[in-house]
Amino acid sequence: MLVADMRSLRDQTASWVLVNTFDELERAAIDALRAHLPAVLPVGPLFRAEDDDDAHDEEDECAAWLDARPPRSVVFVAFGSLVKPSREDMAELAEGLVSTGRPFLWVVRHDTRDLLPDDHLRNEKNKMGKVVPWCRQRRVLAHPAVGCFVTHCGWNSTVEALAAGVPVVTYPSWSDQPTNAKLLVDGFGVGVRLPVPPTRDALRRCVEEVMAGPGAEAMRGRVGEWKAKAAAAVAPGGSADRGVQDFVDAVRLI
């Protein structure tokens, strides 16, 4: 979501505001802000399509693990760099993932690893799932084996999910995350919301609804349209391409 403190920006001497979004995603917000702020330039999504071509380098253990899974079979779980679920929530999430019967890739940071239950997840006895402290998230989302993204709905993750064409189970915590989750679920229709606090049964139901429920195919179709729009934004002549070029041209004139 394009969020700005307009008063503080007006009081500063910035000549441009570059934002990680694209016209097709937030045209109304961009146009509204342009009436009050210096030049607002959409330069997102912040990636190039060709960056995913080398997603299978030898050091990427996640890519190698994903390569062995069928298309759209994996549940990918990541909650960003700040969200820290409680021990109880981690236990419910762990049991919920196992109960889906689907392969899952779960990013659990080192500072939350001790919150995992002392079972097959921590000891990696359960070969159905893989727990890692970090991954190249955009590359994981772009992998054809990923069929669902359980996300905290930070803005970067929101844009990356849309750009990758992956439907979501939203698990927002604070700041802009609940608004982003509402945008994904109610605005774009590309996912469902996990109740807070999460339960294993609720997570299993949400994952199944997104991956195999009656509306799953329609969700994939809608998020696929956003994937195409994101690719068009970064292509030559797209909104991101124009935004970056406008900024470069303006700087060169100084």
From TrEMBL:
<dbReference type="Pfam" id="PF00201">
    <property type="entry name" value="UDPGT"/>
</dbReference>
<keyword id="KW-0808">Transferase</keyword>
<protein>
    <recommendedName>
        <fullName>UDP-glycosyltransferases domain-containing protein</fullName>
    </recommendedName>
</protein>
<comment type="similarity">
    <text>Belongs to the UDP-glycosyltransferase family.</text>
</comment>
<dbReference type="GO" id="GO:0080043">
    <property type="term" value="F:quercetin 3-O-glucosyltransferase activity"/>
</dbReference>
<dbReference type="GO" id="GO:0080044">
    <property type="term" value="F:quercetin 7-O-glucosyltransferase activity"/>
</dbReference>
<keyword id="KW-0328">Glycosyltransferase</keyword>
<dbReference type="InterPro" id="IPR035595">
    <property type="entry name" value="UDP_glycos_trans_CS"/>
</dbReference>
<dbReference type="InterPro" id="IPR002213">
    <property type="entry name" value="UDP_glucos_trans"/>
</dbReference>
